[in-house]
Amino acid sequence: MSRRWAPAGPVLSLFSLFSLLSLAAVAAAAVNLPDPLAPPRAGGLAAVDDALLRLATHRRVLIVGAHPDDEDSSLLTLVAGMGGEAAYLSLSRGEGGQNLLGPELGVGLGLIRSEELLGARRIEGNRQYFTRAYDFGYTRSLDETLARWPLAALLEDAARAVRDFKPQVIVSIFRDGGGGTHGQHQAAGVVAHRIYELAGEASFHPEQAAEGLEPWAPRALYRRAWRQGEEEPAIAVRLDGAEAIGGRGWGQIAAASRSMHRSQDMGRMQTLGGASTSLVWVAGGSGQPGSGLFDGIDARLSAIADLLPRLDGAGPREEVRARLEKVEGEAARARAGLSPAALGDALPALVSIRGELIQAGRLLAAHEGAAARAAAGLIAEKLALAERAVLAAAGVAVDARADRERVVAGESVDVTLSVWNSGAHDAVLAKAEIVGRDGWVGAPMLDGPVPVPAAAAEPAEWTRTLTLDPAARPTLPYFLARKRDGDLYDWSDAGGDSRTRAFEPPPLAVELVLQIEGAQVRVGREVVHAFADQARGEVRRPLQAVPALEVEAAPALVLRRTADRGPAAIEVRLRSNAARPLGGTVELGVPPGWPDVGAPVFAIEDAGGGAAVRLEVAVPDGAPPGRYRLPVTAVLDSGERFAGAFPTTEYEHVRPRPRPEPTVVELEVLDLALPAGERIAWIRGASDSVSDALSRLGLAIDVLDARGAAEADLAAYDVVVIGARAYETDLGVGHVNAKLLDWARAGGTLIVEYQQYQFSDGGFAPYAFAIGRPHDRITDETAPVRLLAPGHPVFNHPNRLTAADWDGWVQERGLYFAGSWGPELVPLLGIQDPDAEEALGGLLVAPLGAGTWVYTGLAFFRQIPAGVPGAYRLLANLLALGERR
Questions:
Q1: Contact status, residue 476 vs residue 660, Cβ threshold 8 Å
Q2: Which domains does the chain have, with CATH numbers?
Q3: Predicted structure pTM score
Q4: Would you say residue 770 has pLDDT above 80?
């Protein structure tokens, strides 16, 4: 649940009072709201208190890192607790990491981690930005990073974020490219330090000014202090105590924020106490090392007036200052007098504050120049905050619901607006309008002003029917609308209100103007679909434009051994989103010379219904090993053609987000021999779809969890595989470890895929074994591989490996290699990154009684789903070790 609102909305040029109010409406209607997938609330004491705290001050800090979990949660929390605004700029969305929750990697994982950051920002009450960079995985090299993430693109996006947010202080999580073990971290340090100098230069991307992104020069630059005592003089930034209304300590809020990174296994205890962090001064501010975060910076609201140039006599600068000083004083007095029993008593002060901000905006609108426009943008955000506080103090709640979640282009949806006045002050709904984008066509909700009386027993409601443009495209995150350009998202089609944001504004929203105590208050709310689930209660889902028919193939990767005979089976699943019956045929493209698979017929009667057809692909005998692309298309009787699907990420803690999945079957013909008759048990780990792929090849695999392994008669198996990070994802694996080792001593083959420190620190290996700190990893997927024991069965049975088996690996060779081990364990591989020493701990094998124990840090969890032939051949040999004992 959000503690405070996160201000947002692009800053546009202001030349009139109308423009100022319009900008305030944009800020309020975009994301300056609680989570739209949570039920609406009628104000509340915490919301008003928080707004008044922020209205009395002007503190803004931008933190810059490389990945979602690089943020400084304590700093973000304590700046918000001071009444300031903080933001985090992450260069990437973390697509190259691992996923502790499920199978999503790459783009799917990036969507999850982006939403986790938004959840963290809602807890603290802050803002989130991104650049175009796609996380290509770990690298030690800054040069490689900047070759794949061009510095010019990163700086352009960072300038956009700085000019939009207008921080007084930038905090770089990392050094200026001079050190660190991760090239992407080094790049983040370079960007933070360079943009501190560049964002204020009018000659640097001057075209951004046309979007209202005027040059902005931050006042100070700090860097996070990672090691106490090594980077003196560091400053300690601390906020003790607890939030005034909720009662949580600032340290608890920071821990709750950090715990939103659930896909990264980062849950934290909410220990009582304040929040603190340590920083190193770099430039600006008071000009002295060891100074405080805002030393040398006027953090009063009235300091916004200092953006205007000094004029002789009393000019607009001093008039604006006087208006803002009145806001400071009124906000402080109103906050001191807040009463939960009479929250509406704060309305006169809030209405007055709104008026002073409007007057300050009017003065600025008459003043030319970039500085005036920048100051007006900051005041517009305060005005939006004041209007939201008026609404909260008045006890007015707004909701907007659609009768459907998924809407096909050309079809209609009913939208219901609800307005409830629970307070003691009458209001008037002066205007209500549905605003659409991306093919969603808006419409007015009212014919004229409508009274909204106080203390209403139930909400007033209005319903309108809207039609989605027949040419509307399926809903997608703005950065996925176009094909990626290398390791940069192509957001050239996205508007300025989306670029650098986590996601685009919602496709449909209501914008209202309420008259409360003489003030015209603007408020926006996203239109969502809501329904009752018998187990969970109310469930809210975002609207999504979808095609009439979605098509997906299973499996998307078909594995075919050269020794296999008979057809390869593919199931095509069709899902109708249309209100009308659909029927047609399914087509599958095959390479020239392959037998035609025909065009089976399908029929779907109901919306949301589905059908499945089975296709059999006759792979010609002698088809050479390699990958073949087989496109799948559904052709309706009307002639319309559909290919692709738009599945959503579905986890309780994040908003569902669609991603595009083209319907192309990848058929991989492998020169692969499998173990003969081995019975395999598989304990799954994180992002573990390896066993599924092997099962499709015909291996007999039983998937067990720790409890199943504890109860199972392991004598029925020849091989047990423990998936990547299984000792973390299922803590019971540690409890069954002794049983697994005893089973291996009796003659079984126990294979442990890469684990983290919980494994080595827990003593789960049968011999001396430790993972280095930092751990050895091979980030270059093309890194040369040396066989330390070429005659070992791992390289010879049932597949004789060659140099070609190390070609085509994706993202990395492996990670969390063993750093040290006992003499019983035999290293079989030497792999060397270009910028590191040879790592020998990637594949260790040891006899264990009558059986075998294996540890491998090789990234099978990436290679097997990607269909890398050499990874299949090596893994098959590991599974067959028992045959050669």
A1: yes
A2: 1-58+301-394 (no CATH), 59-299 (3.40.50.10320), 397-510 (no CATH), 549-669 (2.60.40.3880), 674-884 (3.40.50.880)
A3: 0.89
A4: yes
